[in-house]
Amino acid sequence: MVVSVHQLDDGAWLSVNDSREVPVSQLWLLARHGFCGCELADFLAEGFVEVGVDWPDIEARIAGQCVKCGASSVTDWLTVGRVNRENGDFRSVVPSSVHVPERRTRLATPE
Ligand SMILES: [Zn+2]
Questions:
Q1: Which InterPro entries match (predicted)?
Q2: Distance 45 CA to ligand 1 centre (A)
Q3: How far apart are CA 31 and CA 51, in angstroms?
C-alpha cells in the first residue's frame, strides 16, 4: 500500500494521501524528550519540519516551543498518526496524551 505524506502551507498542515489530516497549533505532551529541561513538556507545535513514514506509523519532526519554560526547538520524530493496514485510513493520535519522541537510531547504524 502506498502512502504519501507531505507538509503543506509552510508546515502548517501534515497531509496524508492528499488529505489535510494534522494541523499545527496543537498542544502536545512530551515525555522522555530532549527538547527542554521539563520532565513533561507542554509543547506547542508551530510547524512541521520533516515528515516520514515508519509503516504503519506516520511520523514528523515539529518545530515549536515548550509553554512551560519557553524553550524553542525542533522535536525528534513523533508518531502523529497511524494508517490502517486493512483499508488505508489514517487516524491521528491524540496530541494531549503523553508522547515520546524517538531518534531514528537504526538508520544511523552502518550495515
Ligand atoms: Zn520546557
A1: DUF8134 (IPR058447)
A2: 13
A3: 20
